[in-house]
Amino acid sequence: MRSWVLRRPVRRSRSGRYQLHLSSDERQLLRSLPEQLNAVLLEDDASVRRLFPPAYADDPEREAEYQGLMREDLLSRRRAAHEIMARTIDASDLDAEELNAWLATLNDFRLVLGTRLDVREDDMGDDTPAYALYHYLTYLEEVVVEALAGG
Fold it and tell me: Any idea which of 10-14, 20-24, 45-49, 72-76 has the lowest mean pLDDT?
């Protein structure tokens, strides 16, 4: 009897690098994320604001000062992560820094999409392509976290 095991799309290798086992369709889907995110970062809507949560929600003056000091740095870090993912989208293995950039990009896209879909805790959503993408990104993010944690 043959034992079927579901292959994890991201696994840590003995060398300490991370192996990516993604289909060409998955890579094609993921290839568009960094560019879409960089375009979305230029918008001022609720889904983007979710990427820059307030530090002083009850103090508009301190919040404006904080955003003035930190927003460009946060924006620069996000764009750098998106660039790393775009550059390594066809790689078969990544180092920890590259995989962390993938994690950041997956999380950013998931947050934006989840906000636009108005996803709530324990919300399975409906059977649309947008929800399917949201669930796939959730799964992939979980797998990346497990790989980085040594699982």
Answer: 45-49
Pairwise CA distance, residues 42 & 115, whole Å: 16
In 3D, which of 110, 104, 105, 145 has the Cα closest to residue 131?
110
Report the alpha-carbon distance of residue 99 to residue 86 in Å, rounded. 12
Per-residue pLDDT tens digits for 32-72: 999 999 999 888 778 888 888 889 999 999 999 998 999 89
The 8 Å CB, 24+ separation contacts for 35-39 are: 35/82, 35/86, 36/109, 37/78, 37/82, 37/105, 37/108, 37/109, 37/112, 38/79, 38/82
- Find how far residue 111's CA is from the centre of its chain: 8
Distances (CA, A) of 46 to 2, 51, 82: 50, 9, 20
Q: Where does the chain show beta strands of DSSP type E? A: 10-12, 18-20, 93-94
Please state the pTM of the whole predicted model: 0.87
